[in-house]
Structures are given as C-alpha cells and as structure tokens.
Amino acid sequence: MKTVFVDIDTQIDFLFPAGALYVPAAVGLLPAIARLNEFAAAQGIPLISTTDAHSENDPEFREWPPHCVAGTTGQRKPGETLLASRTTLGFPPGAPIELAPQIVVEKQALDVFTNPNFPALLDCLAGDRYVVYGVATDYCVSRAITGLLGTGNPVALVTDAIAAVNPEDGARAIAAFTARGGTLTTVSEVTG
Ligand SMILES: [Zn+2]
Q1: CA atoms of 153 and 149, how far apart (whole Å)
Q2: Least enclosed by CB within 10 Å: which of 50, 80, 109, 153?
C-alpha cells in the first residue's frame, strides 16, 4: 500500500493560544504533529500539509474572525511541522504539481478539495491509503476526511493528533466518518 499523510491546517493562528482563531487544546498537539511529519520524512511517505491562505477581506471572515491571512505570521506553520524539503501548491487553476517530501496545499475555504489542483495532486501521488490529522476536527479535518473517503481509498484518522473547536461537533464528525468506513488510529500505532 502507498500511504499518504495529510496534515490539516496546523498553522500558528489555530495552534497557539495567542493565535487569531485558536482551537482549544491544539497547542498540546504540536509534539504529535511534529512526530508524524518527521516519521513521514524518515519513511519516504508523501506528506500533504493543507493551509488556509486567506486574503485580507476574505468572504470567510463574515463567519469567522480574520485568520491565516497570507503573508502574516499567523498564517505560517510552526517550524516543527515543516520539513526541510517542501513545495507549495496554490489555488489558481492549473498550477503545476511539483512534488517534494512535504507539499503545502493552500486553500481559501474549509474544504481542501476547493483547491482545484488538489485532485490532480492526489492522482500524481497515487496513494491508496490516507492518514489524516490536524485541526479542526469539526471543520477542516471533517471536510478533508469526507472528501478523501470519496476517493474510495481507506482513510485513517489519528485521534490523538486532532482537536475540535466544539468537542461535541468533533465527536459527531468522527462518528459520521467511522459510519462511512473510516478507521481510527493513534500516533504510536502509526509511527509504531
Ligand atoms: Zn479559514
């Protein structure tokens, strides 16, 4: 099986209490995210890291406080979540797919599948199993696991490397995911 790791929105604005849209308890995930990303690098497992990259007056800010504006500190990923060798896939349609151990996929909406180049990246990586973690369980992680299940490949969610905005909504998202055949795993199981 060719596994692909998918690290969702582990960005400063979401992960740190002083961030613009802190996800409760997310700061405690940093060691787990770092361990998973380093494991991917060491094992040659492709790592997709999705990131919000909003414009200053993004329509999303009608619903959410402004966060992850492109070019700001809050939009960046903490150093321990970054691999030395990486590339970025923007959202203008037709952007060329450049592969690296870590592929940062930018988006301006909750769902990474709104980046029109994302399906082509998945095709290019030709993964047949996805391991997903990051934030927030009840928003962007939920959209990603739903879309990835739609590819027909197995999807595993790392339950000790996710955090929810609202724990009850997070639990509902996980229940909906397992009901559709998604599986649950842990950092130590994955990195064995
Ligand atoms: Zn956003």
Answers
A1: 6
A2: 80
Q: Which of the 8 DSSP states describes residue 83? A: -
Q: Is 53 exposed, middle or buried (0-12, 13-18, 19+ CB in 10 A)?
A: buried
CA 63 / ligand 1 centre spacing (Å): 10
55-111: per-residue pLDDT in tens?
999 999 999 999 999 999 999 999 999 999 999 999 999 999 999 999 999 999 999
Using the mean position of ligand 1's atoms as its centre, give its distance from the Cα of residue 14 in Å: 10
Span 44-53, pLDDT tens digits: 999 999 999 9
Q: How remote is the CA of residue 54 from the centroid of ligand 1, in Å?
A: 7
pLDDT confidence of residue 124 = 96
192 alpha carbon to ligand 1 midpoint, in Å? 33
Q: Are 12 and 41 in contact (CB under 8 A)?
A: no
On whether the CB atoms of residues 172 and 142 are closer than 8 A, the answer is: no
User: pTM for the full model?
Assistant: 0.97
